[in-house]
UniProtKB/TrEMBL annotation:
<dbReference type="Pfam" id="PF00561">
    <property type="entry name" value="Abhydrolase_1"/>
</dbReference>
<feature type="domain" description="AB hydrolase-1">
    <location>
        <begin position="165"/>
        <end position="359"/>
    </location>
</feature>
<feature type="compositionally biased region" description="Pro residues">
    <location>
        <begin position="55"/>
        <end position="71"/>
    </location>
</feature>
<protein>
    <submittedName>
        <fullName>TAP-like protein</fullName>
    </submittedName>
</protein>
<dbReference type="InterPro" id="IPR013595">
    <property type="entry name" value="Pept_S33_TAP-like_C"/>
</dbReference>
<keyword id="KW-0732">Signal</keyword>
<dbReference type="InterPro" id="IPR029058">
    <property type="entry name" value="AB_hydrolase_fold"/>
</dbReference>
<comment type="similarity">
    <text>Belongs to the peptidase S33 family.</text>
</comment>
<feature type="signal peptide">
    <location>
        <begin position="1"/>
        <end position="34"/>
    </location>
</feature>
<dbReference type="GO" id="GO:0016787">
    <property type="term" value="F:hydrolase activity"/>
</dbReference>
<feature type="region of interest" description="Disordered">
    <location>
        <begin position="39"/>
        <end position="94"/>
    </location>
</feature>
<dbReference type="InterPro" id="IPR051601">
    <property type="entry name" value="Serine_prot/Carboxylest_S33"/>
</dbReference>
<feature type="domain" description="Peptidase S33 tripeptidyl aminopeptidase-like C-terminal">
    <location>
        <begin position="498"/>
        <end position="594"/>
    </location>
</feature>
<keyword id="KW-0378">Hydrolase</keyword>
<dbReference type="Pfam" id="PF08386">
    <property type="entry name" value="Abhydrolase_4"/>
</dbReference>
<dbReference type="InterPro" id="IPR000073">
    <property type="entry name" value="AB_hydrolase_1"/>
</dbReference>
<feature type="compositionally biased region" description="Low complexity">
    <location>
        <begin position="39"/>
        <end position="54"/>
    </location>
</feature>
Length: 620
């Protein structure tokens, strides 16, 4: 899930800062419908045995906030995508679900062909082939004739079809995933055993899109640290506007949520001719994988949850509580000591405290005197926060971040001196550097596009992200609550904590789903893969997910802070464990600790590669 910076801006899995707080989405009123059969059956099955007591948040972070009960507005009952009458048990619910799927959808034949040019880097696109799966728009009324398209991908192959299928998800929630087979391409352990399939979930990418219909000019926000009554009132107005627009624009929005998506995934499984599927989900994809496993435990093969959210907690806990802590820890414990160690190169400070002071001074100067740079336009305190937060996902970005902070410092110092020649030279360098560090639009770090960048792809991804997160689980309501939480989080975790106030879900007018709580019952072993200082999905949430999912094994990478690990950062210990599990089903007997690879030495970074391009897609 898929960091927050504050220009209405983002995985899941993929994808991240409390910035979930700012994203576009679309939504329309739906008539009251019965609670989903499969969901109710799942909850009924869960209630027949003792539930594990809720775990307490660790002392390193505030206790989880509890959203109040949601008021059901007239004509606006909870969404209910899967069924009608309550069956006796889960197996019967699954049988009924399959029986209710229209025959023409259940038996559809896939036509594989070229993928859209947005699916992957151009030089790798020919390695993929894509197909479209037709699914009911509303799984609660699968026979009403209204359908959506779900785009899927796989690697081209002339050889025999492997015996297993691995479904993948990059996170977000709502991140496009057609490129995902390329992440796992070349894993020797999977080459002969598994067909890797990418999916653009409903709402985004090459699938049927959702939209919010907002113009980017509507999205201007004050600096998140401006706590004046005027700034807070303006922020609340924008959040209400986003929530209102996103709940009244797109006819698809009520049907973009996790219940609908897990039903789509099970249809993909059936159309591919598999009785079971394996899963590799990153970030917000851990949430989706855990929900699929809870709805369809008999379909679960070998599931890997990489960089896990707390799969049993509401999204408010994930984005408003956990993420500010995670980004603060990564910035202060990893980046700042590293930059101080290399002060001779970057001139940001000889101690972590001095590096932090350099960041704060630069931020204050950019708030007082924003810069105008080629390719990116206005660069202010919000821009700096976004650059820093996005760079926390991968240690490979640390050197570029430190260099760019130094450039911005020099430019800011030169402005009053009118040194135009040198200023123009530095600005020409800084523009591309800032652009490359900023979050991609419509991602978990930046749900809403910046001004001047509103396009269909970014709008659809942002809309899918916010529609899922606001539709799925309950959120606390009202300006007073979010002002207070933003103040508290900002004082504790200033990098992104202040932007907690910018939360459209706090003004959402649609009741949440009643999703079953994943508990691991009736599931084979699962792997949860986690780094110790992950910024977007902090280790505290992964530990709670591990406790909730009773059959899981936790693979913790100590001394590591990158987000999205398997087949991505090149850790042999981790990759071998996951390879073995996916290829053979052999899970570790218990939890495992791997050693991290350490932070990079400046000047020794490899030239930007295709693998790095793919990783950037994965982490947003």
């Amino acid at each position: 899930m898929p960091a927050p910076t504050t220009r209405l801006h983002r995985t899941a899995a993929g994808g991240a800062v409390a910035v979930l707080a700012t994203a576009l989405v679309a939504s329309t009123a739906v008539p009251a419908t019965a609670a989903p059969t499969l969901a109710r059956a799942t909850r009924a099955a869960q209630s027949t045995s003792t539930q594990a007591p809720p775990t307490q948040a660790p002392p390193t972070q505030p206790p989880p906030t509890q959203p109040p009960p949601t008021q059901v507005l007239p004509g606006n009952a909870p969404l209910s995508p899967l069924a009608t009458a309550r069956p006796a048990g889960l197996e019967e619910a699954q049988r009924q679900f399959t029986a209710r799927t229209p025959v023409h959808l259940r038996e559809q034949r896939l036509t594989w062909g070229p993928c859209p040019d947005t699916a992957a880097p151009a030089d790798l696109l020919p390695a993929l082939e894509c197909a479209a799966v037709r699914a009911p728009r509303d799984w609660n009324s699968p026979g009403d004739g209204q359908e959506v398209t779900v785009a899927i991908s796989r690697l081209r192959s002339d050889g025999p079809r492997p015996a297993r299928t691995v479904l993948t998800n990059p996170g977000g929630p709502g991140g496009p995933g057609l490129f995902m087979p390329l992440i796992l391409a070349g894993r020797p352990a999977l080459a002969g055993t598994s067909e890797v399939v990418g999916v653009d979930v409903r709402g985004t990418g090459a699938s049927t899109n959702v939209t919010c219909g907002l113009d980017d000019a509507d999205l201007h926000l004050p600096d998140a640290r401006d706590r004046s009554p005027q700034a807070l009132a303006h922020t609340a107005r924008v959040m209400r506007q986003v929530a209102r627009a996103c709940s009244s624009t797109s006819p698809l929005a009520p049907f973009v949520n996790t219940e609908q998506t897990v039903a789509d995934l099970d249809l993909v499984r059936a159309v591919l001719g598999r009785d079971q599927v394996d899963w590799v989900g990153y970030s917000g994809g851990t949430w989706l994988g855990a929900q699929y496993a809870t709805y369809f435990p008999a379909r679960v093969g070998r599931f890997v949850l990489d960089s896990s959210v707390d799969v049993a907690a509401p999204f408010q806990q994930v984005f408003a509580e956990d993420q500010p802590l995670g980004f603060h820890r990564r910035f202060t414990r990893d980046f700042q000591p590293w930059a101080a160690q290399h002060h001779a190169r970057f001139r940001l400070g000889r101690t972590p405290q001095e590096v932090n002071a350099s960041y704060e001074r630069l931020r204050a100067d950019l708030v007082a005197r924003p810069l105008e740079l080629p390719l990116v336009g206005r660069v202010d305190g919000t821009t700096l926060d976004g650059m820093v937060a996005q760079s926390m996902y991968s240690k490979t970005a640390f050197e570029d971040l430190a260099t760019t902070m130094r450039l911005l410092r020099l430019i800011s110092d030169l402005l009053p001196m009118q040194e135009k020649g040198e200023l123009l030279r530095l600005q020409a360098q800084a523009g591309p550097a800032v652009r490359d560090l900023l979050p991609r639009r419509g991602t978990m770090t930046s749900p809403l596009p910046r001004q001047g960048t509103l396009d269909q792809a970014a709008d659809a991804q942002a809309a899918t992200f916010l529609t899922i997160t606001c539709n799925d689980t309950a959120w606390s309501r009202g300006q007073r609550f979010w002002n207070a939480l933003g103040q508290r989080q900002g004082e504790r975790y200033p990098l992104v904590g202040w932007s907690t106030t910018q939360q459209p879900c706090g003004y959402w007018r649609r009741p949440p789903l009643s999703l079953p709580k994943p508990d691991g019952r009736d599931l084979p072993p699962l792997l949860i893969v986690q780094s110790e200082h992950d910024p977007a999905t902090p280790v505290e949430g992964a530990r709670r997910a591990h406790e909730a999912l009773g059959t899981s094994r936790l693979v913790l990478v100590e001394g590591e802070g990158d987000h999205a690990l398997y087949a991505s950062i090149g850790n042999p210990c981790l990759d071998e464990l996951v390879d073995r599990f996916l290829a053979t089903g052999q899970a570790p007997a218990g939890d495992v600790t791997c050693a991290g690879t350490g932070l990079p030495q400046p000047g020794r970074m490899q030239a930007k590669s295709t693998r790095q391009d793919l990783r950037e897609l994965l982490v947003g």
